[in-house]
Structures are given as C-alpha cells and as structure tokens.
Design brief:
18 strands; 2 domains; mainly beta; about 5% helix; 3 helices; 5-stranded mixed β-sheet; Glucose Permease (Domain IIA)
Length: about 350
C-alpha cells in the first residue's frame, strides 16, 4: 500500500518570544539524539515506519528496504495499541533545546482513510517543536490529548518528559512520529548530512551510539496478531476492540488473525489454530510473489455442533523467507482461553 504521509509542522511561536533564550552559535554542530520515547524497542514498542529516501513515487528506507511510506519524513515509533496508550508511554526530549511550538487538545481518533480535510494543516496532531540551535530542530507528533507538559519558550533537557504517545492527527495507530529538520529541511537521523553508502547508515548518523544499539532494523515485522469469532473486521482490530483474553464456548467461530509489515516476494506465511489438546483444527499457507508493505490474513473454523471445548487455544504464526537457506524469520504463538 502506498500513500503520501506529510506531517504539517507545528507553527513556531514568534521568534521574539524565544530569541532571548537561545545561546547556540550559528555554526553549532548537529545534535546527537537519544531515543524520543520511553520504551524497550523490540519488546514493548517498535519502529513502525522509517524515512523515505526515494525522491520519486516509490519508497525506500535507509537500508534500501521498504519499511516506509511514500513521502514519509520521519521515524515512527509504535507502542502496540490503545490500552498501552491509555496506560501512558512517555515522549522524551531527544536532546537539549528550547520549545518553539506546541499543540494540544486534538482528540485521539484513528484516521483510517476517507475524508482528511478536517486535519488540513494539523496532520502532526498534538505535539512539540524543539529548537536545538544552529538551524536544527525536532518535531514530536501524534501525542495524547491533554498530555503535552511543556510550554513555548521553555528550555528542555535531554530525557525530559514532553508528554505521552497518542493517536491525534493523521495517525491510524498509537505512535510517535519523530522528525528532524535542518533549516526547515527534513533529515533522516539514520543517514545524517555527511553522505555515506547508498544503503545503510550514513557516515555520521544523528542518533547517539546508545540509541543506534537499541534500534534493531527488521525488514519484516509481526505488527499484530490475535483472535476473533469470524471474518476479521480490520477497523475493529485497529480500534482495539477484539477479544484478548477469553471467548465463550458458544462463539460462532474461532479465528486467529495476523498483520505483518514488509512481506517480501518468496516469503511463505503459515497460520495454525490448535485446540487445548494441541491438535491443529485450522491452518492456511500463503506464498507471495510480490512485496506487501502490509499483509493481513487469518485462518479459523466454525463452532462444532457440541460447542467449543473449554481450555486454552493456540494460534501459531510462522514466516519463512524462501532464500538460499530458507531462513525462518518469524515464529510466534498467541493463546486465548475459551470458557
């Protein structure tokens, strides 16, 4: 799926309001950015989308993969759903600076397509714009309504809480869009401005060493998986309305669904549904001959005449890349209690 994502910036406050607080020389070097989110990458959060380096209608991330969207000008850190958003995941200042702009009060509502005119000029949603001097700034987007905790003109320090991850603006799932700019031009912190190989990190990335070590690039990613009681309604999935812990024995059907990012040609995905005794009661195999930025699928079966047996059912997800070595890329399970 290709779509243009352009995050309209937060309008900075008039320069006079903050000029007296800035003390950086015009020749200041690029700042080194820590992670802008308080989570453990690969465990309870992940990079949803990278910066797009394809100047034309295609899309290409810094590793020459396709984990991005057309025109995407930042790095998206996703947190896994509305429940986690409600619990609160902190947005952190990635470097020292001064707040030049802020927005709060926009509601947290997933935008899944259709009419976006109401968001014109506000695709960033609630957020903060921080000036780092020397022409460098950073923007933090899609923050939770009412959570922005800094004011225009306030000096912030690296690691200071700016607010919480949300779902405001042009966002289809809770995440933080982090965008670095130099003199108003968007810069990929994985590449920096000093060039380097066409694919891979730039000669001088803008992330700190600690941040880089924590970001494990994955060309394919299991975004979400769960259970349902029939054909999957993906709008309900993204709204967090699918059962997560239990289902009744009277459920009309039992399905296991999955959403995977970055499925490549020659990949194979196998889905299995197993009953409490470990027997496979439904399965499906999917082979791909082209790239899918996002692929969704499910397998399942209708309720037997006697109803579902009580106990824990298991969904198994396996993705194998059919390269020279048949590498297994994903192998995970999910469980749900039927009672």
């Amino acid at each position: 799926m290709r779509r243009l994502i352009s995050h309209a910036g937060l309008r900075p406050a008039p320069w006079a309001a903050v000029a007296g607080l800035l003390a950086w020389p015009a020749w200041a070097e690029a700042p080194a950015f820590d992670l802008p989110i308080d989570c453990a990458l690969g465990k309870d959060c992940y990079v949803w989308s990278y910066f797009d380096h394809d100047p034309d209608k295609g899309y290409r991330d810094y590793r020459c993969g396709r984990r991005t969207n057309e025109g995407h000008g930042g790095t998206d850190f996703a947190i896994g759903g509305r429940q986690r958003m409600a619990e609160g995941v902190r947005v952190l200042a990635a470097a020292d600076g001064v707040v030049r702009g802020r927005r709060d009060g926009m509601r947290d509502a997933a935008v899944l397509g259709g009419d976006r005119r109401a968001l014109a000029g506000k695709f960033c949603g609630n957020g903060v714009n921080v000036d780092h001097g020397g022409g460098w700034s950073a923007q933090y987007c899609h923050m939770r309504r009412g959570s922005v905790s800094v004011q225009v003109g306030e000096r912030v320090r690296r690691g200071q809480v700016l607010g919480f991850v949300g779902l405001s603006g042009l966002a289809e799932l809770p995440h933080l869009h982090f965008e670095v700019l130099r003199d108003g031009r968007k810069i990929d912190p994985f590449r920096g401005v000093d060039g380097g190989p066409r694919c891979g990190l730039g000669a001088r990335p803008l992330w700190t060493d600690a941040a880089l070590k924590s970001i494990d690039y994955e060309p394919v990613l299991l975004h979400a998986a769960g259970f349902g009681t029939g054909p999957v309604d993906w709008k309900r999935v993204r709204a967090g309305k699918y059962p997560k812990e239990t289902l009744p024995t009277s459920a009309p059907a039992l399905t296991v669904w999955v959403e995977i990012l970055g499925v490549r040609a020659a990949d194979q995905v196998r889905l299995e549904l197993r009953d409490p005794r470990g027997r496979v009661i439904a399965d499906s195999d999917h082979r791909f001959d082209k790239y899918w930025a996002r692929w969704t699928g499910f397998t399942g079966r209708k309720r037997p005449a006697q109803g579902w047996a009580k106990g824990r059912y298991q969904g198994r997800i396996e993705l194998v890349h059919r390269g020279p070595d048949g590498q297994r890329v994903i192998e995970e399970t999910r469980e749900i209690e039927v009672r």
